[in-house]
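Table 4 source record.
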Amino acid sequence: MNPIIERARPEIRALTPYQHAAWEPSLTRMHANELPWRVPGDGSEAGLNRYPEPQPPALVNGLAALYGVRPEQLLVGRGSDEAIDLLARIFCQASVDNVIVCPPTFGMYGVAARIQGAKVISVPLRAPDFGLDVDGILAAADVYTKLVFVCSPNNPTANAVPVGVLRDLAKRLSPRALLVVDEAYIEFSRQPSLCADLDALPNLAVLRTLSKAHGLAGARCGALIAAPEIITLARKVIPPYAITEQTVEVVAPLLEPQAVERMRARVDQLLAGRARLADALRANRFCTRVWASDTNFLLAEFTDADEVLRRVRGAGLIIRDVRQAALPASLRITVGTSEENERLLESIK
């Protein structure tokens, strides 16, 4: 058995999951207490009066093929957020266990841990270029550390952690803790995904999402990718009908090869716009630094961030104020269309 499973909560390992209504599409459904009629305006293929299939094979198989993993290594969820929450509930015992996060980073890791009652240990990224402090993580990890979250490429700093560093960290954490690598922005980076390392690193979990490069933020569809034993536990904990029928019918066709090629072409277009926007910001009198980016956004430092925010809002745009101790004068700018990027630049001339 995968030794990381021994680190999961014993009550989750012993849990008998909810037994949802059997899924047998060839039979007329009179077993799930559903209404037999569609509502007016329901244009879905399956009918919104029917419960959706738990872990729909169209999505499981499509996402597994997209990410180069086996279906038993993948759980479909409502974006990466649900996977983060599931892992905290599976592994962390309230008031006992802890997770490690590496700020500045995505805030949901700490939120999910605190909701579960776990302690959050911060090991900040190293200044000035936000490198991962591997030695600091290993020193902070103790017998109660269950999860180590690393966002790569990172939000909001936009940089990726070298794959070799992450592989080494997973090996050195094993079997004490699960390394969770959030690859929400990996399609915008030249760095390869760690999905190919799952068999070699049983204490690795990878988070992927369709919200960014695929342009499906409103569909709420992502994946937890990990050892089959971890996926089995996650299937016990996730609600039985988490993925809506609309999501299945909209997303499944967009996992076909032609749709994926269109996605990659849009990513190339966005990366060209990112380069032009970065160059223009570096020439702006308010801007003192633009960090290199492996994402669909830029982190930029300004002499007067408040004035920049005011001017941008006056142009009918909104960007993210990410100022904090490690980023005292920085704003995060999502790369938009050519027109949107030009409007932003014009507003801060």
